[in-house]
Amino acid sequence: MSDALIMSGRALRMSRRNVDALITALALPVMLLLIFVYFFGGAIDTGTNQQYVTYVVPGVLLLCAGFGSSNTAIAVVEDLKTGIIDRFRSLDIGGAPILAGHVAASAARNLVATALVFALAFAIGFRPAATLAGWPAALGVLLAFILALSWLSAAVGLLAKSPEAAGGFTFFVSFLPYPSTAFVPTDSMPSWLRGFAEHQPITQVIESLRGLLLGRPVGWTPWIALAWCAGILGASVAASAWLFRRRTG
User: Fold this and answer.
1) Membrane-spanning residues where (predicted)?
2) C-alpha angle 102/107/109, rounded to 5°?
């Protein structure tokens, strides 16, 4: 645990010193929310009487989590290329604390970006109706998704051969919220796409956040979302352990 805390501090300091990447990670959520609300919101009918900003906020949160988590893959690749991991191993620091440090930094960046999105959303008309239990439940689902995605990104970083290849992970992750209920209801989609959009993990997380934040009945959806996150997290941690031994053995 002490090694993991030290590596988390290192990753956070690296994020703070990389000013360009930090500004991009924090400014991107703000720009995306404004683009979707003011560029596309007036032309999209969500089938409800609510403002589009109320509908789109959960989708923007997950889209930004994908962008933010993808930086973990790039950071892991750069550690491998510079040889710093070999130095850490000579100090008897294992792979789990090193990767956990990058994941913790990713979670911290994403939580700051989430706070910015919420602040801006409130300013332009977002009015949640979450219950007292709904707020921590929504935060728990979002944090579980961020951790699962960050560990998946760490595994991709161990698999990639260059930062450019790891950066390609951004495209895949940022694409997944589009074929979901993030920005439009699935009713307008073709039947073959609707089936995928309604059952993919991103939709389960989005519908959980939307229901919890707006005080609506959510049924088993949050548990399904958490099950997806737990599955992705477990597979990613196991894959990361195997890939770390393979890349550094």
Assistant:
1) 21-40, 52-77, 98-125, 137-159, 166-184, 223-244
2) 95
Instruction: Report CA torsion sign: 36, 30, 79, 99.
Output: negative
Three-class SS state of 48? coil
Of the candidates 168, 142, 156, the one whose C-alpha atom is nearest the C-alpha of residue 29 is: 142
Query: DSSP string covering 87-116, please?
Result: HHHHTT--HHHHHHHHHHHHHHHHHHHHHH
183 phi and psi angles, rounded to 5 deg: -120, -25
The total of other beta-carbon atoms located within 10 Å of residue 132's CB is: 6
Closest CA to 147 of 97, 207, 116, 106: 106
CA distance 64 to 166: 17
What are 178-193's pLDDT values in tens digits?
A: 888 888 888 888 888 8
Q: Please, which residues have CB within 8 angstroms of residue 192's CB and are 6 or more apart in sequence?
A: none
List pLDDT tens digits, range 31-59.
Answer: 888 888 888 777 776 666 567 888 888 88
Q: Which residues contact 209 (CB under 8 A, 6 or more apart)?
A: 58, 61, 62, 138, 141, 142
Under the banding of pLDDT at 50, 70 and 90, the label for residue 140 is very high
In this prediction the pTM is: 0.87
Q: What is the DSSP letter of 178?
A: T
Asked whether 25 and 33 are in contact (CB, 8 A), the reply is no
Phi, psi dihedral angles at 77 (to 5 degrees): -60, -45
